[in-house]
Amino acid sequence: MPALATLARIYVDDLDTALPTFTALAGEPVRQRFAYRDLELATVGNFLLIAGTPEALAPYRQTQATVLVADLAEVLDTGAVLDGPNDVPTGRNLTLRHAGGAVIEYVQFSRPSAG
């Protein structure tokens, strides 16, 4: 179950305001941009920017990283399921709490998202 990539989750108030800083840091343009529930998200390099109101962000702030995997089934039994599996704009996701307390979102991409 090797990770294909790990994205640092960055919680921001406004995506449009934050994006120039992270495109400069990554040296790359926005790869994906999409809405999910009451949030706006964008990936830039190895950053996942998540924007929303404090209330909208609150349920997600405990999640420390997003890990891309080939198959969610391979990680399903590695921790306690907190959320998912869910259909999301990029494929399917699931959030686990692992032994030791780390909370990680796993994403299996199956559809590209318009940027």
Automatic annotation (TrEMBL):
Superkingdom field: Bacteria
InterPro entries attached to this UniProt entry: Glyas_Bleomycin-R_OHBP_Dase
Protein name as annotated: VOC domain-containing protein
Gene3D superfamilies in the cross-refs: 2,3-Dihydroxybiphenyl 1,2-Dioxygenase, domain 1
Annotated SUPFAM superfamilies: Glyoxalase/Bleomycin resistance protein/Dihydroxybiphenyl dioxygenase
